[in-house]
Write a structure and sequence with these properties.
Helix content of chain A is about 40%, strand content about 20%. Chain A is of the alpha+beta class. Chain A has one domain: Sufe protein. Chain: A, CATH 3.90.1010.10. Chain A has a three-stranded antiparallel beta sheet. The chains are: A alpha+beta, B alpha/beta.
């Protein structure tokens, strides 16, 4: 199967690989997927206390090229957004941007789940209710 | 000069030896006759070439040339052997014994027969990929008509105890079929010594052309018959109708002859390279060889690099052509059933690469592959959350994974 140029670019030059301090109150961590499914994503955001803007985002991913590219792209998009704006990132935006084929749509779903999971972790740490995910993926 | 990408997927198919191609060419053009045309020299010439190839092929497995039935490849040979025995020996019984790690050409044939009333026992292998004689003996019933066990596995190269299984089958009067696709031409195969009744093999795994294979069908002690699965002109002693692929057969014959003459030299050279590749890659932390190292084909290596996903790894080693045990491209996301049968953890099964060397593989190519794989594994581990957890001493099994 041929990968799109954008997937290859993110895979070869992944943006924002790394680890933020999990214990920090300003950091939200999302760990999604499972080793037996062949992909695990860990996505972290660091939120500016005063502005509520995501000032840093990091990821690490165990998975195929599309999974790595999806999470790499997600960190790029997250930086500079407010938490509420970040919640609006839709997996289909990732599919479109990376030209993912149908068998790789689950990689984008995973990235969206990772974003939501990181945001909820941040919310809970700061005394807010986690946001229910009512979205159905097809 | 090193030419990229480097081909290390010789268990999928081998390049054709130029000596094989050379001998085939005239049979496409001037010697184009139909081997079944008995009335003119065009047919005679084709028949003569086929007869000669049949001898070359039979000799490689210590068979008689009359025992070679030409087919389109090993998948067809496996279908013909198993379905053909099931139909032919229906009065004797309906039970077939095979193993979990067979190629799909055997497993799916067995599944098909189950719908037609066959009873199939799928034996489990141990963690090395091997089965024991005791397991087979235990599975035998009065209704057992066939035991079909692969000679060597296509993913891990593990060789089953053929001689012992053959002797057991003979003592019980049960037919013994083996899918020897990966073994023939690579290691000595002897249907007499191993008491094999039916044996499937193909040209394109041993430097011959694609689209031509054979089924060995024993003629003496016992005389084995299979019901044809392809009806027509009654070619191949009535067991497989269809005009013979003369150029393909000629090439298959030559490929067998070359393997017979050069096997020892090839094996010595290839296994040395394979062992070096493994030794160098085992230097990487948390890397493992899958399957038995003692009972293994000389040209295959299946390795897992823990905490790195196979498909991502394949993408990282784009300058070498290998295959992965991870089948993330399919909708099922299932890792290799062969590796799972060995009891490998899912993350190890997902993290595997199969290297297949050939007589054309060079030392420079192996050097390149070693560095290329090492670099990719290290790079992917840097971005693997599982690797980070492992390094922090977190037990991955203690984590509640959100399955999706």
């Amino acid at each position: 199967m041929a990968y799109s140029e954008k997937v290859i670019d993110h895979y070869s030059n992944p943006r924002n690989i790394g680890t933020l301090d999990k214990a920090s109150k300003q950091v939200g961590t999302g760990l999604v997927g499972a080793p037996e499914c062949g992909d695990v994503m860990r996505l972290q955001i660091e939120v500016d206390e005063t502005t509520g803007i995501i000032k840093d985002a990091k990821f690490k991913t165990f998975g195929c090229g599309s999974a790595i590219a999806s999470s790499s792209l997600a960190t790029e998009w997250l930086k500079g957004k407010s938490v509420d704006e970040a919640l609006c990132i839709d997996n289909m935006d990732i599919v479109e941007e990376l030209a993912l084929p149908p068998v790789k749509i689950h990689c984008s779903v995973l990235a969206e789940d990772a974003i939501k999971s990181a945001i909820n972790d941040y919310r809970v740490k700061n005394g807010l209710e986690p946001i229910e995910d009512n979205k159905k993926h097809y | 000069m090193l030419k990229l990408p480097i081909y290390l997927d010789n268990n999928a198919t081998t390049p054709m030896d130029p000596r094989v191609l050379e001998i085939m060419i005239p049979y496409f053009t001037e010697n184009f006759g139909n081997a079944a045309s008995r009335n003119h020299p065009f047919g005679w010439k084709a028949e003569e070439a086929v007869d000669y190839a049949r001898e070359q092929i039979a000799q490689l497995i210590n068979a008689n040339e009359k025992e070679i039935i030409f087919t389109s490849g090993a998948t067809e040979s496996n279908n013909l052997a198993i379905k053909g025995v099931f139909e032919m020996y229906a009065a004797k019984g309906n039970h077939i014994i095979t193993i979990e790690t067979e190629h799909k050409a055997v497993l799916d044939t067995c599944k098909h027969l189950e719908k037609l009333g066959a009873e199939i026992t799928y034996l489990k292998t141990d963690e090395k990929g091997l089965i024991t004689l005791a397991q087979i003996e235990e599975a035998i019933k009065p209704s057992t008509i066939l035991i079909s066990i692969m000679y060597a596995n296509n993913e891990i190269g593990v060789i089953q105890p053929m001689k012992e299984i053959g002797a057991l089958c003979k003592s019980k009067g049960i037919l013994f079929h083996t899918d020897a696709t990966q073994a023939v031409g690579k290691i000595p195969v002897d249907v007499i010594a191993d008491n094999i009744d039916l044996l499937s093999f193909t040209g394109h795994k041993m430097y011959g052309p694609k689209g031509v294979g054979a089924l060995y069908v024993r003629r003496k002690n016992p005389r084995v018959k299979v019901t044809a699965q392809m009806d027509g002109g009654g070619h191949e002693r009535g067991m497989r109708s269809g005009t013979l692929n003369v150029p393909g057969i000629v090439g298959f014959g030559k490929a067998c002859e070359l393997c017979r003459l050069e096997m020892d030299a090839d094996t010595a050279k290839i296994s040395k390279m394979r062992d070096r590749l493994e030794k160098e890659l085992l230097v990487l932390e948390e890397s493992y060889i899958n399957g038995s190292v003692e009972h293994r084909l000389p040209h295959v290596s299946n390795m897992s690099f823990k905490y790195v996903e196979g498909e991502g790894l394949i993408m990282g080693v784009k300058n070498i052509a290998v295959s992965s045990g991870s089948a993330c491209t399919s909708a099922s996301l299932e890792p290799s059933y062969v590796l799972k049968a060995l009891g490998l953890d899912d993350e190890l099964a997902h993290s595997s690469l199969r290297f297949g060397l050939s007589r054309f593989t060079t030392d420079e190519e192996i050097d390149y592959a070693i560095n290329h794989v090492k670099e990719a594994v290290l790079k992917l581990r840097e971005m693997s959350p599982l690797w980070e957890m492992f390094k922090e001493g977190i037990d991955l099994k203690s984590i509640q994974w959100a399955e999706h």
